[in-house]
Design goal:
The chain has three helices and eight strands, in the order H-E-E-H-E-H-E-E-E-E-E. It has about 190 residues and is an alpha+beta fold. The strands form two sheets. It has a five-stranded antiparallel beta sheet.
Length: about 190
Amino acid sequence: MATTNSTIERVRSLVVPVVTDLGLDLYDLEQRGGTIRVTIDTPPGSPGGVDLDTIAVATRLISRELDHEDPVPGKYTLEVTSPGVERALRIADHYRREVGKRVAIRLSDPSADERRFDGLLIAADDTSATILLDGGEERVFSLASIDRARTIFEWGPQPKPGGPRRKAGVSGNSSKKPETSVSGGEDHDTEEAP
Protein backbone atom coordinates (compact mmCIF):
# COMPACT_ATOMS: atom_id res chain seq x y z
CA MET A 1 0.00 0.00 0.00
CA ALA A 2 2.88 2.38 0.74
CA THR A 3 4.23 1.90 -2.78
CA THR A 4 0.80 2.62 -4.26
CA ASN A 5 0.39 5.78 -2.15
CA SER A 6 3.86 7.06 -3.05
CA THR A 7 3.25 6.26 -6.73
CA ILE A 8 -0.07 8.09 -6.66
CA GLU A 9 1.53 11.09 -4.97
CA ARG A 10 4.29 11.19 -7.61
CA VAL A 11 1.69 10.95 -10.37
CA ARG A 12 -0.41 13.66 -8.66
CA SER A 13 2.59 16.02 -8.52
CA LEU A 14 3.00 15.61 -12.30
CA VAL A 15 -0.68 15.73 -13.25
CA VAL A 16 -1.87 18.74 -11.21
CA PRO A 17 0.25 21.34 -13.09
CA VAL A 18 -0.89 19.97 -16.48
CA VAL A 19 -4.56 19.98 -15.48
CA THR A 20 -4.29 23.42 -13.88
CA ASP A 21 -2.67 24.85 -17.04
CA LEU A 22 -5.73 23.63 -18.97
CA GLY A 23 -8.03 25.52 -16.58
CA LEU A 24 -9.36 22.29 -15.09
CA ASP A 25 -9.45 20.57 -11.72
CA LEU A 26 -8.11 17.15 -10.79
CA TYR A 27 -11.31 15.53 -9.50
CA ASP A 28 -9.84 12.15 -8.62
CA LEU A 29 -6.74 10.00 -9.09
CA GLU A 30 -6.77 6.23 -8.59
CA GLN A 31 -4.53 3.28 -9.23
CA ARG A 32 -6.38 0.01 -9.68
CA GLY A 33 -4.17 -2.84 -10.71
CA GLY A 34 -2.35 -1.80 -13.86
CA THR A 35 -4.56 1.24 -14.54
CA ILE A 36 -3.92 4.83 -13.51
CA ARG A 37 -7.26 6.67 -13.71
CA VAL A 38 -7.07 10.47 -13.86
CA THR A 39 -10.49 12.11 -13.49
CA ILE A 40 -10.61 15.76 -14.56
CA ASP A 41 -13.41 18.29 -14.36
CA THR A 42 -14.19 21.93 -14.92
CA PRO A 43 -13.93 24.15 -11.84
CA PRO A 44 -16.99 24.18 -9.54
CA GLY A 45 -19.68 26.54 -10.80
CA SER A 46 -18.65 26.23 -14.45
CA PRO A 47 -21.57 26.17 -16.88
CA GLY A 48 -20.53 22.95 -18.65
CA GLY A 49 -18.51 19.82 -18.21
CA VAL A 50 -15.33 18.55 -19.80
CA ASP A 51 -15.74 17.76 -23.49
CA LEU A 52 -14.03 14.97 -25.43
CA ASP A 53 -11.59 17.32 -27.18
CA THR A 54 -10.36 18.61 -23.82
CA ILE A 55 -10.01 15.05 -22.51
CA ALA A 56 -7.97 14.15 -25.60
CA VAL A 57 -5.62 17.13 -25.11
CA ALA A 58 -5.26 16.37 -21.40
CA THR A 59 -4.54 12.71 -22.17
CA ARG A 60 -1.73 13.61 -24.58
CA LEU A 61 -0.14 16.11 -22.19
CA ILE A 62 -0.42 13.87 -19.12
CA SER A 63 0.89 10.86 -21.05
CA ARG A 64 3.88 12.85 -22.29
CA GLU A 65 4.66 14.01 -18.74
CA LEU A 66 4.37 10.51 -17.28
CA ASP A 67 6.49 9.02 -20.08
CA HIS A 68 9.18 11.64 -19.44
CA GLU A 69 9.26 11.27 -15.63
CA ASP A 70 8.34 7.55 -15.43
CA PRO A 71 6.77 7.66 -11.91
CA VAL A 72 4.96 4.32 -12.22
CA PRO A 73 7.00 1.10 -11.97
CA GLY A 74 6.22 -1.49 -14.65
CA LYS A 75 3.53 -1.38 -17.30
CA TYR A 76 0.30 0.53 -16.77
CA THR A 77 -2.65 1.91 -18.68
CA LEU A 78 -3.42 5.62 -18.42
CA GLU A 79 -7.12 6.44 -18.38
CA VAL A 80 -8.18 10.10 -18.45
CA THR A 81 -11.89 10.69 -17.95
CA SER A 82 -14.51 13.07 -16.60
CA PRO A 83 -16.56 12.23 -13.50
CA GLY A 84 -19.74 12.00 -15.60
CA VAL A 85 -23.18 13.18 -14.64
CA GLU A 86 -23.54 10.82 -11.67
CA ARG A 87 -20.30 11.31 -9.79
CA ALA A 88 -18.78 8.98 -7.24
CA LEU A 89 -18.12 10.73 -3.93
CA ARG A 90 -15.03 9.17 -2.37
CA ILE A 91 -13.25 11.91 -0.44
CA ALA A 92 -14.29 14.95 1.60
CA ASP A 93 -13.46 17.34 -1.28
CA HIS A 94 -15.98 15.51 -3.50
CA TYR A 95 -18.75 16.02 -0.93
CA ARG A 96 -17.89 19.71 -0.43
CA ARG A 97 -17.87 20.27 -4.19
CA GLU A 98 -21.34 18.72 -4.64
CA VAL A 99 -23.21 20.57 -1.86
CA GLY A 100 -26.61 21.56 -3.22
CA LYS A 101 -27.02 18.42 -5.34
CA ARG A 102 -29.07 15.28 -4.84
CA VAL A 103 -27.06 12.30 -3.61
CA ALA A 104 -27.54 8.62 -2.86
CA ILE A 105 -25.47 6.97 -0.13
CA ARG A 106 -25.04 3.46 1.18
CA LEU A 107 -23.68 2.92 4.67
CA SER A 108 -20.88 0.46 5.41
CA ASP A 109 -22.61 -1.33 8.32
CA PRO A 110 -24.62 -4.25 6.86
CA SER A 111 -26.48 -4.70 10.17
CA ALA A 112 -27.90 -1.15 10.13
CA ASP A 113 -31.71 -0.97 9.95
CA GLU A 114 -31.45 1.42 7.03
CA ARG A 115 -28.38 1.43 4.79
CA ARG A 116 -29.51 3.49 1.79
CA PHE A 117 -30.46 7.15 1.82
CA ASP A 118 -31.32 9.68 -0.89
CA GLY A 119 -31.64 13.40 -0.46
CA LEU A 120 -30.15 16.84 -0.91
CA LEU A 121 -26.54 17.28 0.25
CA ILE A 122 -26.78 20.49 2.27
CA ALA A 123 -23.39 20.56 4.04
CA ALA A 124 -20.06 18.75 4.11
CA ASP A 125 -16.75 19.05 5.92
CA ASP A 126 -13.63 16.93 6.41
CA THR A 127 -15.45 14.24 8.42
CA SER A 128 -19.18 14.40 7.72
CA ALA A 129 -21.96 15.09 5.23
CA THR A 130 -25.41 16.47 6.06
CA ILE A 131 -28.29 15.31 3.90
CA LEU A 132 -31.83 16.66 3.82
CA LEU A 133 -33.77 13.44 3.29
CA ASP A 134 -36.81 13.33 1.03
CA GLY A 135 -39.09 13.24 4.10
CA GLY A 136 -37.70 16.58 5.35
CA GLU A 137 -35.39 15.15 8.04
CA GLU A 138 -31.76 16.35 8.21
CA ARG A 139 -29.25 13.59 8.86
CA VAL A 140 -25.52 13.90 9.50
CA PHE A 141 -23.41 10.97 8.31
CA SER A 142 -19.78 10.35 9.19
CA LEU A 143 -17.81 9.97 5.96
CA ALA A 144 -16.11 6.95 7.52
CA SER A 145 -19.52 5.24 7.84
CA ILE A 146 -20.34 5.63 4.13
CA ASP A 147 -19.54 2.68 1.88
CA ARG A 148 -20.61 4.29 -1.42
CA ALA A 149 -22.03 7.63 -2.45
CA ARG A 150 -22.82 9.35 -5.74
CA THR A 151 -24.66 12.33 -7.07
CA ILE A 152 -28.04 11.69 -8.69
CA PHE A 153 -28.63 13.27 -12.08
CA GLU A 154 -32.29 14.13 -12.51
CA TRP A 155 -33.31 13.35 -16.08
CA GLY A 156 -36.13 15.35 -17.51
CA PRO A 157 -37.09 17.92 -20.09
CA GLN A 158 -35.07 21.08 -20.18
CA PRO A 159 -37.01 24.38 -20.15
CA LYS A 160 -37.45 25.84 -23.61
CA PRO A 161 -35.81 29.17 -24.41
CA GLY A 162 -38.16 32.10 -23.87
CA GLY A 163 -39.96 30.67 -20.88
CA PRO A 164 -42.80 28.22 -20.36
CA ARG A 165 -45.53 27.87 -22.98
CA ARG A 166 -49.18 28.10 -22.23
CA LYS A 167 -50.82 24.69 -21.97
CA ALA A 168 -53.49 23.81 -24.54
CA GLY A 169 -57.06 24.31 -23.42
CA VAL A 170 -56.17 26.74 -20.61
CA SER A 171 -57.47 29.84 -22.41
CA GLY A 172 -61.01 28.51 -22.54
CA ASN A 173 -61.29 29.08 -26.29
CA SER A 174 -62.32 25.67 -27.57
CA SER A 175 -62.16 26.71 -31.24
CA LYS A 176 -58.36 26.78 -31.18
CA LYS A 177 -56.43 23.62 -31.86
CA PRO A 178 -54.03 22.66 -29.07
CA GLU A 179 -50.41 23.37 -29.92
CA THR A 180 -48.16 20.37 -30.28
CA SER A 181 -44.44 20.35 -30.62
CA VAL A 182 -41.77 17.82 -31.23
CA SER A 183 -38.42 18.50 -29.64
CA GLY A 184 -35.10 17.12 -30.72
CA GLY A 185 -32.48 15.53 -28.56
CA GLU A 186 -31.11 17.31 -25.54
CA ASP A 187 -27.48 18.02 -24.90
CA HIS A 188 -26.09 16.27 -21.84
CA ASP A 189 -22.49 15.98 -20.82
CA THR A 190 -22.02 12.23 -20.51
CA GLU A 191 -18.36 11.71 -21.33
CA GLU A 192 -17.62 8.74 -19.14
CA ALA A 193 -14.99 6.12 -19.38
CA PRO A 194 -15.99 3.02 -21.36
